[in-house]
Amino acid sequence: MFAKFGTVFTQFEFFPSRLSSDGVVIFSCFLADEKDSFRLFFAFFTFCHARSPDDVEPLIIIETLSLASPGYVTHDITLDICRFTRYKREHSISKNTAVLFPFLNADDELQNELAKIGGTLPISDDLSVLSEPLTFGQTKKYTIPNRFVVQPMEGFDSGPDGEPTELGFRRYERFATGGAGLIWFEATAVRAEARSNSQQFWLHKKSVDRFATLEEKTRSLAKKQFGHDIVTVLQLTHSGRYSKPARGQRLPVIAQHSGVLDSAHNIPNDYPLITDDELNRLQDDYVAAAKLAVKCGFDGVDIKSCHGYLLNELLGAHTREGKYGGSFENRTRFLRETIERIRNEVPTLFVTTRLNVYDAVKYPWGFCANREDYKQWDLTEAKMLAKMLYELGVPLLNVTIGNPYFNPHYNRPYAKTIRGATPYNEYPLLGVVRFANIVREMQKSLPQLPMFGAGTAWLRHLVPNVAAGIVQQGWAKLFGYGRGAFAYPDMPKDIMEKGSADTKKVCVACSGCTELMRTESPTGCIIRDRDYYRLPE
Q: What crossing angle do the helices spanning 428-445 and 380-391 adopt, rounded to 10°?
């Protein structure tokens, strides 16, 4: 379906989905001005009646807001959301029908939607709990001045040696002055070929001074703005099967062959696995990077073990032979040994991990999926591993799920998928609920180890209320936000100083930042920070 309004030519693309009898139909696109908004509304309203006049009630409202998913035009134009009608009965929606899942406007709408899907989320109007400090640590104590955590979000804007550039400095300046008490610095490769993008951060001897300057400026800006000391963590990574160290050049490093992921990523059956000897040497790279991280001033390092990257793949390497595969002890060996080595060789640094506790990939190619139904989780091994990590001295745990390259609706429930990707026929609220409840189950299993998750951006301006509920009811000890930090880095500041978030600044879960990542472009918010970030044409 195409429509032309004034000088703007817009292609409409929507989710295939199913609406309940009282589901609100929402249509989103780029528009040039308010007149185009009304033209679009009436064109679409006429279109709906032409298809199924008995199913559609008269129009309700049009909202002209700076909120929506990205469209496909090259003009410098504003964004609108057009709200349309209610369907009278359950109605199957084809790919050619303009339907998106409803955004929720108020707490009562969220409660109603949760009741419909049989889901649970804690909601609180008292946001003060998010301003409370949290002290953690086993041997050495650290205090986070509030409960907000900026999750590691790659900007893919490094220099030729993997060093932070001015755009990277700008990003962390915004995080520092935004108010979050814990800033989890983005994925930083431990060797050149471990990068997922040619412009991913890479920490080594030539780049260490630039990282030290970045950490010091981030810390000092937060201190100057708020008078508090923040906690900083650097995420260390090997991208594994998603390694792409040069632009357009894929160099996968795989721990096992996957009956699910190999075909999805065009990896042939005879592609070689990383050997045990190579993994032994890779431990050395993590230790070397940790030694540089402490020189830079970071409080901690994260041995990244999530989202389908190498260490996460090892956790689910049931079919791998040798000391790093097969049994639970072997599959967790690399992570445990690396953490123990860093603790022993760099004792002034705390070591943690962002841990996938559920891959949502069929057994035997994933971690903690139910062996009979991979869409259900079995956290038995994840809980065992968390306990082992705690006994190794890990002082907090960043919990996540899914694989953004394969099933992104698990860890990033979104309003719109990226161009060219297969949309998933799932109500995003189900994804938010699933993620939050998995974190809850993990935290409940080991209350002495502070944990937190992410994945709430689709709730938009209701995020603070759910965040407060999560902390208040003990579902997690902290609240992590990633896409929201790109869009609205000063949300913690607004909540702490004004008692509320600005609805015109929130992330709209449009997947624009993800699409920038996939196109190997510098990454940020195309809606709220569009002077710096735009989708390539």
A: 50
Instruction: Give me the helices (H) in 90-181, please.
Output: 107-117, 166-178
Q: Which helix (H) or strand (E) holds 217?
A: helix 208-226
Q: How many CB atoms lie within 10 A of CB 284?
A: 12
353 and 300 in contact (C-beta within 8 Å)? Answer: no
pLDDT tens digits, one per residue of 315-353: 999 999 999 999 999 999 999 999 999 999 999 999 999
Say how far residue 186 (Cα) sits from the centre of its chain: 11
What domains are there in the chain, each with its CATH number? 2-102 (no CATH), 127-518 (3.20.20.70)
As given in the structure block, the two tokens for residue 410 are 């698990």
57's tokens: 């009630």
pLDDT at 438 over 70: yes
- pTM, two decimal places: 0.84
Q: Give helix 166-178 / helix 491-498 axis angle, nearest 10°.
A: 20
Give whole-number Cα distances, 27 to 41, 144, 181, 237, 362, in Å.
9, 41, 37, 39, 35
The alpha carbons of the chain give a radius of gyration, in whole angstroms, of 23
Buried/exposed code over 30-54 (b: 16+ C-beta within 10 A; e: otherwise): bbbeeebbebbbeebbeebeeeeee
Question: What distance in Å separates the CA atoms of residue 19 and residue 88, rounded to the nearest whole number?
Answer: 10
Respond yes or no on whether the N-terminal peptide bond of residue 395 is cis (omega within 30° of 0).
no
Task: Give the integer Cα–Cα distance in Å for 317 and 215.
Answer: 35
Rounded Cα–Cα distance for residues 418 and 412 (Å): 12
The span from the CA of 507 to the CA of 525, in Å, is 8
Average pLDDT over every residue of 513-526: 93
